[in-house]
Design goal:
By secondary structure, the protein is α/β, with parallel strands linked by helices. The chain has helices at 8-19, 37-49, 64-70, 97-107, 129-140, 160-163, 176-186, 192-198, 203-211, 214-229, 235-242, 247-266, 279-288, 291-307, 314-328, and strands at residues 26-30, 77-80, 117-121, 146-152, 167-170.
C-alpha cells in the first residue's frame, strides 16, 4: 500500500534520515489517532529493508526482500503488538514481557541480510511495566544495524525513560483541504465534512465513523439529550442507557454540542462547527439557555474527562451530568 495523500511531507522528512545516513536506532512516531501513523511506519520499515528503493525512497515491491515482506516471512522484520487472547479471540490490551524476551533472544543474533533489521512496536504504549523495563535494557545497548520503530497516539502513557532514548517524530493533523477530496471519493451519500468534524480532523477515524453505527448512535443520543432538556426523559433512566456507549466518544459529543451552542450564541455565521446537521436545535438552545450556567455545565464536562480514567461509578457520573443538564434547561 502507498502513502496517504497527506503524508508526503512527513515521508520526505523520514527520507532525509536515510539520505543523510542518520537513521535513528529508535524512532518514536506519534500523533493523533486515525491519521495513518502505522502505514507511514510500515512504509519506512519496508524502504529500509528494500534492496532497490525507488527514487522517492519508497520500497520497490519487487526485490527479494519486498517479496519476503509480502509473504510475511522476512527474517529481519518483526512486528510486536498485543497478542490474541486464546479465550476471547480478541487482541489483549497489553504487550507482555514474554513477547519482549522472545524479541531480545532474536536481537542477540546478527541480521540475516546486509541491510537493516527493523522491529515495529505497535502500539508502543501497550507495553506493560515489566515489558517496558525489559525493553529499556535493550534501548540502552542496541545491536548493530537494528532500527526500532515505535508507534503511539498516547505519548503520555509511555515511560519517560523510553521516550528519552528515542528520536521523536510527530505527525501533524492533516490539512482539511487534502482530506476532504479523499474522503468524498470514498463516502457515497455521507457528508464527509460532518464525519471529519466528529473525528476531530482524523481521516481514518472519519472513515470508521462513516462505516459503522457511529452517526446513528450520535443522532439517537442527541435526541435523547434534547428530551432530557425538555423534561420528557428522566436523567437516571438515560444514564443507565448510556452505560452501553463508548465513554470517551459520548463525552466528546456532549462537549462538542455545548461548544456549538456557544458558537451559535456569539457568532453571526458560526464556523468550524462540529454538528452542522444539528443546526436548528442547537441554535434554538443557544437563544434560550443561560450562558453563565452553560459555562458551569461545560466545566463539569471537562472535569468528567479526567474522572473517566478513575474507578468512578460511571452511571453516577452520567446521572450527575444529565441532572445538571436538566436543571440548566428549567431556568
Amino acid at each position: 500500500m502507498s502513502l496517504y495523500p497527506w503524508q508526503h511531507e512527513s515521508w520526505q522528512q523520514l527520507q532525509s534520515y536515510v539520505v543523510q545516513k542518520r537513521v535513528p536506532q529508535a524512532l518514536l512516531i506519534n500523533g493523533t489517532l486515525g491519521i495513518g501513523k502505522q502505514r507511514l511506519a510500515e512504509q519506512f520499515a519496508y524502504a529500509l529493508l528494500c534492496e532497490k528503493p525507488l527514487l522517492d525512497g519508497l520500497s520497490c515491491g519487487q526485490c527479494s526482500s519486498c517479496l519476503l515482506i509480502k509473504a510475511q516471512t522476512h527474517p529481519d522484520f518483526m512486528v510486536i503488538e498485543p497478542e490474541e487472547d486464546s479465550k476471547t479471540k480478541k487482541p489483549k490490551t497489553s504487550i507482555g514481557i514474554d513477547q519482549i524476551r522472545m524479541l531480545m533472544g532474536k536481537l542477540s543474533l546478527k541480521p540475516q541480510f546486509d541491510r537493516y533489521r527493523v522491529i515495529m512496536i505497535q502500539p508502543a504504549d501497550a507495553l506493560n511495566n515489566a515489558a517496558a523495563n525489559a525493553f529499556l535494557k535493550y534501548l540502552e545497548e542496541p545491536t548493530e544495524r537494528t532500527v526500532l520503530v515505535l508507534v503511539t497516539h498516547r505519548m503520555n502513557k509511555l515511560p519517560a525513560t523510553i521516550k528519552s532514548r528515542c528520536q521523536k517524530f510527530t505527525l501533524p493533523l492533516p490539512d482539511k483541504s487534502l482530506i476532504l477530496p479523499w474522503l468524498e471519493k470514498r463516502l457515497a451519500g455521507i457528508n464527509a465534512e460532518i464525519v471529519l468534524n466528529l473525528a476531530q480532523g482524523a481521516p481514518l477515524l472519519a472513515m470508521q465513523y462513516a462505516s459503522d453505527s457511529h452517526l446513528e448512535q450520535r443522532r439517537d443520543c442527541f435526541n435523547t439529550w434534547l428530551s432530557v432538556a425538555a423534561q420528557q426523559s428522566h436523567p437516571v433512566i438515560v444514564a443507565e442507557q448510556w452505560l452501553k456507549l463508548p465513554e470517551t466518544t459520548l463525552l466528546f459529543w456532549l462537549n462538542s454540542w455545548v461548544i456549538d451552542i456557544m458558537r451559535y450564541r456569539y457568532q453571526l455565521a458560526p464556523k468550524n462547527l462540529y454538528h452542522i446537521d444539528f443546526k436548528l436545535p442547537l441554535s434554538e438552545l443557544a437563544q434560550r439557555i443561560n450562558v453563565i450556567k452553560l459555562y458551569d455545565f461545560y466545566d463539569l464536562l471537562l472535569k468528567s474527562r479526567g474522572r473517566l480514567e478513575t474507578p468512578i461509578n460511571k452511571q453516577a457520573l452520567w446521572e450527575e451530568i444529565l441532572i445538571a443538564w436538566a436543571l440548566l434547561n428549567r431556568e
